[in-house]
Amino acid sequence: MIEADPIELQACSEHLLALEHEIVGYVPHRDGDAVWGLWLVRRANPPLLVATEFFAVAFKFDVLGLSIQTGEQALNRAKENVPRLQAMVDEWRRLGAAFPPPAPLPTSLAPPETTVAWPFDRWSVDVLKRREWIVDPDAAPDDLFANGGPHLAPGETPPGTEHACTAATGLLFADSGRRLLIAARDMAEAPLVTQDQDLIERYVADCFAIPVRDYVRQLDL
Predict the structure, then answer these.
(1) What would the pLDDT profile of 105-119 be if each residue is shown by its tens digit?
(2) Bridge partners, 66 (sequence order)
(3) Cα distance between residue 184 and residue 52, in whole Å
(4) What is the DSSP letter of 5?
(5) CA 168 → CA 60, 182, 208, distances in Å?
(6) How many of the other CB atoms lie within 10 Å of CB of 64?
(7) Residue 167 contacts residue 65 (beta carbons within 8 Å)
(8) Which of 159, 166, 175, 215 gives 127 a disulfide partner, CB atoms 3.0 to 4.6 angstroms apart?
(9) Alpha carbons 1 and 147: distance in angstroms, whole number
């Protein structure tokens, strides 16, 4: 098994620590009918955009994580990526594929004025990390995906794993009786956002949780 470098949240310490006390509302980030992320509205500082990030770890092994940044930062990153995306489009066209031109970037990114009120007065924040892996079909157990599997403990990888890494994929907000999950989900452009406790239980079953302050300290951000 080849162990890849861990994938961490794409965020600075200031924004991660702000998740503990500054949030007053949230609202999806939309482009037309498509949802591309989630705005976390803060009391006195610019809102934070939570979006899905794709990481190409190895051949046919892509892992999803999260970025947390201001609209200005997200727009600057998008501008930096324009030459790379244009080169990809040009290469596809050279190979004969019909490819529309990339859409122009907006001049600014900001949430709409109407937001959903934050459901907590006081809350804790955990970073959720889990093992991501890809298996060799010829070496994996025949029953790996039987009965809703795989059934693995947090941190485990199944027999036949070719590549694996540990990835920070979610944020879990909680008070004494409620929870809200924001997490990357398989092959989806927008993060999962839910207060459905059954759905949260299924997601966190594969994860181990780290309080956000401990996470920042571990990474020395």
Answers:
(1) 677 778 878 889 999
(2) 52
(3) 6
(4) P
(5) 20, 12, 10
(6) 20
(7) yes
(8) 215
(9) 25
